[in-house]
Structure formats: structure tokens, C-alpha cells
């Protein structure tokens, strides 16, 4: 993948549209100050491809793409893959409080040189148009995931620099991170969690198994026996219950007849003629006659009242006459006030005109005073501004002084330079001595390989001994498992025999229980045939002994099964342990053969002779190593002294630069005063000239300030006087305006009063045009009094007659109600005995009707008394028979451990017996099924326990292997061998065939071919050499990841590294390294703010930031 053109708009710091053209930029640098947006360019390139950036921490983070003040951003990248050209684009928008990707696209151009779509040319092929499609399409096109791209193209240089100098544990963590193999730690944690879950599951299942302890074969046999006995009881109960029901039925019928007779007798006995029936009829007739007379009198009085009311309504009305009188009085009062109101309105209008004239004169005075105040204020402000400008000039000039310590900067710089040269000479001599001792040590061989060979030999001896023990334990476990399997087979045979014996005993026991219940002539409960001859009784079968024998066989079989499972698991564990030891022995033997090539591949060798040879070689090398350590220490001390001297020179130079910067800063502060030009190279002279100019300027400013201060006081007093005049004029105008407002209100009120009075007089005149004259009103009022008195007299008489009518009607209704009640009581009495067929009644004579009904009731009661005695005798006989049969039924229930109380109360108790027996039988059947299910569940739970135990052992073993000193360490060691081999090839090419890279026992070394192939630790490398080594490791990992992922050819690489921390020599070496890297087939991009490095790159993209946005400018060819 090679980028061609990057377009940004609203992305991070690039708020304005920006284009980065990578055409013909095989080797380029992104240059600019810190924070200008150099790394953001790489973020945008990565975001366009994968929707996120390496620095954002997550592969799905998009919030950092949008500039803080923008609501939308777009990123478009045109790039080449092989010979084809593609373009990918993404749009991000702010939606409410969320930031979301809205539109994406990936297209393939028909023209491999195109950078945009041509409307007239061939249209590009759309490869993806949805967010969920785009990332998959990019990964398929490049063959790299987001993480792989960030490690292969945007190299994690900092990780590899730390990787070189880290200890063994930290290096393993860094390598696993770079390889993306950190998930193995997760596998180990999940395996440990699964092992814990399996252990917990075993505990839960064991608890479940304990709940089935009561489910035994003996319990199952007892339940079956109970079920059989209840079946026989059900047959007996079915025969007895109908007889009890028939006796109860006869007793119920007799009781029903007895109850009916008693009911009829109870209805007939109270039927007698009530007292006072004749007197009731007489009073009712008298009340009806009085009511007719009262109704006639009330009608005559009502007609008299109607005539008087009609005469009053047609005569004069009192309300109309009173209104007319009130209006005549109001009109006379208004006519008396009319002249006074007119005079008041005229006087209010005159006062309003006078107040308006005064208000206009005062407004003109306020305008003139305001103009004068504005003129004096302008003059005062002008004078104050001039005075403030002089004060600011004085403030800017006051701090201009030559800083302390500026005069001796040159002599101090010369002395420190001489010290640095002496330290460099001593460092070169110390390095020569160290290189000589290191060469001698290298010629003596690699000591770490000898140490490792000794350790491998010790491990091989330990593994061989452990393997012998493990093989013996495995043989013992296999033999134990075979014995357990044989014992299980024998136990199964015994269990089958005990089960058959138990079934036979159960059959005999059932027959023994049934034979005593057989009767000649009755059906057999088993075969349902009629019994003709009773068989002889059977002896008590050995059912309990058979059940106990089977229970013993079941327990024995279960225990042996558990022992066999334990033995099988032990064999599997021992086999895995033996296989692991065998594999480790093979690996150690191969490693020993690698460390000692002349050693034959035979595990039965003489290890003591090998150890003696290794000890002799190690002693000689230890002496050379001690000499090399002393030389290295001396070189490190010399290097520390040189570093200290160089740092002192750099510190002084920074002080000179800071002093020079202070001069420029002071000139910038004084820029508005037009200071003189100074020579910034000679900071002492520059400060002296600047201080002399400032002194002269301060004298001039002090003289000007005195005159400006006096003029400011004069202008301020004039403005104060004009302001006072303006305030007095405005106060007078406000007073006049208030008086004018009052006059306006008074004039309006007077006009309103005059208008209101005139309108009311006109309205009263109109209302009184149709009213009677004033002198006719007294006579009309007297006529009203006479008519109203006639109405009141007629009303009183009508009220008296109505009250008399109400009393007569109430009396009539009272006697009529009593008569109706008496007839209702007679009808109710006859209806109560209607079923007994009483005689018909005379509806015209109440007393005669009651006498006829009472005579009939006496005759009927005598007949029913004799029938009641016969029904009582029949009921007693039937009830006694039913109680005898019910007692027999309850005895059978008690014999079978059933409670007769469950039958309930009442004559229907016997009918509940089949249900009680059926419920007991169903419970017995449920008990049998429950025990059978519990036995099956117990077996299933045991199987689950065995399965969970196997899973727990496997997961625990996996968790052990996934520890950092097991599989991850092996993976890291294997990957490190491959990584160092590839990095060594890259290092040789980048260093001009000077260096190779190797490692041993946790340490990295470089082989310096320019120094007789001497071996040096990477900890002794300079900054530039360290950069070469770390870059080689990064390139090697990039190639490996690309090869494993099936990626397309990687045609670009970007380095975002802190080159500013390198010294000049190291920086020169880094520049040479990057130039060598750029000679290959890859596009190489560097991000730096170091000017010396950037100037050596042919194409530079200058990145700078203004107050609004970041800007990119291309320089070079």
C-alpha cells in the first residue's frame, strides 16, 4: 500500500480543507514544531483506512476525529495497491451529544493514475458503501488488521527501544504485546475460571446427590407392597359402599316425609280469625264520606282566589310607579349641578395650555446644556488618552536593564569547551581498551552458551529421573485400573443375581398376602375366576433378606464403579505427566545438541564427562569476563565524564541562546516605541545599546507627563461644570413635565364629568316620556293597595279549606290502608297453605272469608298428626342399618392405616371412601415413581460429577501451562529466535554490513564486523546504534506480521520517533540509516521537529498552526 493523496476537512486540528500530495515522495519528512499537527497527518491516514488511529487507544474510537469546534469532518485517501489505484473516504458528524460516522466509501479507479472521479470518463467500481462493509473490505485488500497495520506500517519504535534494554520478564511481556499474543494470558485466566467453576459444580452436584440418600431398593419394594394392598382394599370398598348408600337413601326418604308433614302441620295450626274485623269495616265507610265534603269546600275557595289575582294583575303596578318616581327625583338633582361642572371644565383647559408652554421652554434649555457637556467630555477624554499613552511608554521603558552575568558568557564557554575536548580524548582511550578486552572475551567463546549447556544438562538429569518415576507410577495405575474393571464386572454379575432373587421373593410375598382373603364362591383378585377350593397357606417368604442382599450388591457395585472411575482418571493424569516429561526430555536433548555440536545425540551418554569439560571452559572464560568488566567500567566512567562535560557546554549554550532570546523578546515588547536596531550576535553590546536608548527615552517622557497632567485637570473641571448645569436643567424639565401630566389628567377628568352629566339628562328625559305625570302617582299607588288587600284575604280562605281537605283525605287513607292490610293478611294466610288445597273465599265480606279458612285449617291439621307418627318409625329403622355398615367400612380403613376422619361428616361419608382409597393408592404409586426417579437422578448426577471432575482436571492443567513461565515463555523464546534472525539481516543492510544482531540467555548483542567481529552488548550502543537495532527489530516484526496475515506487498513505512533526544553523532547515524532504508522499495516517511535531520530529506511537508487551523506546505522535489 502506497499513499498518493490525503484530503482533510475538519479533522482534529485541521479545521480548514487541507491536501497532502504524496506524489513522487519516496522519502519525505513531516516537519514542524511540537503540537503543530505532524502526527495528526498519520492519524488521518490510518483513520481513512480503518476508522480509528493508533494513538486513540481503541480500534473503534472516533470521538478524536472531529475538531472541538466543528460539527462535520471528512477524510479521503487515494492510495495504490500493486498496480491498482483506490480511494477511501469517511465522514463524521456531531449528532446532538454524540459523534457518529455517517457516510463511507471505497472505490477502485479504472485509470491507475486518476486522483478523482471524471464525470466524462469511466466510473470507478464501488467496493464498499456501508460502515460495516468498509473495514472488512480494507482488511481483505491490504491483508492487515488495524493492529497489524499500526505495527507494520506505523512502526511502534518506542516499544522496540524499550525491548532492547528491558529485563527478561519485561521483554517477554513487550514481545507478546508486539506479536498480539497477549490473549494467551486470557486463555489461562479463563481456564482457571473454568476449573473453579467445575470445582464448584462438583460441590453442588455432590450436595444434590446427598438429597437422594433415601432412595433405596428396599424403599422401592416397601412402596410397591403398599400399592398392592391398597388395590385389594379398593375392591372391597367398592362392594360395601352401595349398601351403605341404599340404607342412607331409605332413611333420607323417611326423614323427608316426616319433615314435610311437620311443615304442613306448622302451617295449619296458626290459622285463626283475627280480632276487630267488623269495627274496621265501619270506620272505613265514615272516613270516605267526610273526605268528599272537604273537597267541595276547597274548590269554591280556590275560584275566589283566582278572581282576585286577575283583578290585581290588570290594575296599576307598584314597581313601575316606584321607578318613575325615582327617575323624576334624579333628574331634578342633575339639572342643579350642570352649571358648576361646565365652569370647572373650562378652567382645567386653560391650565393645560399654560403648562405646555412652560414645558417647551425648559426642553430647549436641556438641549443646549447637553451639547456643552458633550464638548467638554470629548476634550477631557482626548487629554486623558494622551496622558495614558505617556504612562504606558514610561512603564515599557522602566524595566529595560542589562541582565546580570552577560559579560562573562564568552570566557565561560571557552573553558567548558576545553574540558569537553579532554573528556572526549579520555573516552576514546577507554573505549579502545574495552574493545580489546571484549575481543579477547569473544574469542574465548560465548560464556552464556556454556552456562546454558550446564543448566540444560542439570535439567536433563532431573527430567530423566522424574520420567523413570512417572513411568513406574503409570504402570501401577494401569494395573490398578485393570483390577478395578475386573471387580466391577464381578459385582455386576452379583447385582443381577440379587435382583432376580428379589423379584421372585416379591412374587411369593404377594401370593402369601392374598391367599388368606380368598373365599369360596368369590372371584380371585388376581385371575378374576370363581374360587371353588381354598389353597393351603404359604409360609412367610424371605423378602427382607432378598431386599437386603440386593441393597448390599447395589452399594458394592456403586463403590466399585467409583473406584474404577478414580483409577481411570489417575491413569489419564499419569499418562499426561509421562508424555510431558518425555517431550521435555526430547527438547532438552535437542537443545544440548545445539549448544554442544560435537556431542552425539545419545541420551545414555556420560554426563559427568560433559560437565567436567564445561567447567574447564567456563573457568577460563570467567577470567576474561572479569577483565572485560573492568574495562567496561572504566569506559562507562569516561563516557559519564564526557557526557557531563558535553551537557555543561550545552547548558551554557542554552543560556547564551536564552539571553539572545531575551533581547529579541524585549525588542518585541518595545516594538510600538520604535526602538533602535541592535546586533543580536553580540548580546552584551545589544543590551548596552538598548539600555542607553531606554534611559534617554525615560527623561523625555517624564517632562511630557507633567504638562499632560495639568491639562488633564483643567479639562476635567470644565466637564464637571457642564455636567452640573445639565443636571439642573434636566431636573427643572422633569418637574415641569410632571406638572403638565397632572394638568392633562385634570382636564380630561373635567371633560369626562361634563359629558357624563349631559348624557344622563338626555337618557332620563327619554325614559320618562312614557311615564305617568308626577301629580297622578299618589292616586295610582292607593289603587294598588286596595287590590293587593283583596288578594291576601282570598289567599287566607283558600289555605284554610286546603288544610281541612288534607286532614279528611289522611283519615280516609288511614282506614283504607288498614282494610287493605287485613285483606293482604287473609290472602297471605291462604297462599301459605295453597299447596294443601284450601276452599275459595268471599272477596266482598272480610269477616266471612276469615271464618271459612279457619274451619278448614282445623280439620286438615288433625289428619296430618296421625301420618307424622308412622314416618318417624320408618326413619329410625333405616338409619340404624346405615350406621352399622358405615362402622364396618371405617374399620377396613383403619386396618390399612387410613384415617376415617378423611371421609368427612354427614350421611354421604361412605361415598368418599373410594376417593380416599384412590388418593392413598395414587400417593403410593407416586411414592414408587418418585423413588425410581430419584434412583435414576442419582445415577445421572454421579455421571455429571465424573464429567465435571474430568473437565476440572483438564482446565486446571491448561491454566498451569498458560502461566508466564510455561507456554507463553516458550512462545516468546521461539518468536525471539525468528525475530532476531530477520532483524540481523535488516541491521546488516542499514549499517552498511557493519553489524549483526544476536541474543543469548536474555541479553542482546551486536557483532561488530569492523572490529574483528567483536561482540558487544546492546546496552553499550550509542543513541544512533540503538536506533538502528530497534528499527531492525521493528522491520523484522513488520515483515513477519505481513507474511502471517497474507498481506499485500508493504510499500510504505512511517516512523514517528523522538529524534530530538539524540546527540549530533547519533543523529548523523540515524540520518544515514534512514537514507539506506529509503534506497529500498518502500516509501519512507519520518516525523520530526529536528531541523538538521529534516534538511537531509529530499521532500518535506512543513506543518504549522495558526489561531484557526493546522496547515501543510510541501517543500523540495
UniProtKB/TrEMBL annotation:
Residues of the Rad50/SbcC-type AAA domain: 5-210
Gene3D superfamilies: P-loop containing nucleotide triphosphate hydrolases
Organism: Streptomyces mutabilis
Biased composition (Polar residues): 744-755
Binding partners and assembly: Heterodimer of SbcC and SbcD.
Homology family: Belongs to the SMC family. SbcC subfamily.
Coiled-coil region list: 244-297, 345-433, 617-655, 777-818
Protein name: Nuclease SbcCD subunit C
Any Pfam family the entry gives: SbcC_Walker_B
Keyword terms of this UniProt record: Coiled coil
Gene Ontology molecular function: ATP hydrolysis activity
Low complexity bias locations: 728-743
Chain positions covered by the region annotation Disordered: 728-755
Biological process annotations from GO: double-strand break repair
InterPro entries recorded: P-loop_NTPase, Rad50/SbcC_AAA
